Amino acid sequence: METLIGEGKTKQVFSYDSDHVLLRFKDTITAGDGAKVNIMENKGVINAQTSALIFRLLERNGIRTHYVGMYDERTMIAKKLKMIPVEVVLRNIATGSIVKRLPIKEGEIFDPPIIEYFLKDDSRHDPMLNYYHLEYFKLMSRKEAEVVESVMMRVNEVLRDIIRKMGFELYDFKLEFGRLGNELIVGDEITLDSMRVRDPKTGRILDKDLYRKGYDLKTVKEAYEEFLSKLEKVV
Length: 235
Ligand code: 5GP
What we know:
single chain, about 240 residues, alpha+beta, globular, binds guanosine-5'-monophosphate
């Protein structure tokens, strides 16, 4: 493998060639801005495969992503981007931080969806940003934010459709964007760590909320595996 150039809570970044990097998905699962950490065996493989299937699906639908191909079963070859340290969240159904922050009840439906921006800063628990903050910190211009929001809406249509085909419902998801020349491209990952998926009939949770809520790792892993095997059948 090449030189390690970066490492986050769940992925390592290696140099590859002048235009590409390798993203190696680790087996770590974390919550609470890194306060809770465990090893979930094979999670890196499951998440790399899940992410790859979703990135390929988005590309087929005309959405630009950093995905190029797989290096091995847990390592993705990705376009080298200048990452913007912002988490962009789209919500279809209320749960998570929004029901704690605002007078909104669990399960309220957002039509149109709500988009929010958060600064990637664990020590400050990822504070929410508005357009003024984005411009003040030189993270994104207002025009770029409009582009990001239209990509978020397109990704939502594609993701929601495929997840419905699997018999589940997409509550919310988080994307990170990077620059390639003048273009804004979807980077990072799209996995059950970064979206919320539930069974609409039973309310059963399939995503990282299982881990956040204290379910055992076996239950979490089985949910991640079930999601991936159903995804493989519908894409
Ligand atoms: P919330 O703001 O409700 O905690 O999260 C909204 C959505 O963004 C959820 O799907 C959640 O998984 C995702 N999300 C929020 N913060 C993070 C983060 O720091 N890392 C990851 N992987 N996903 C996040």
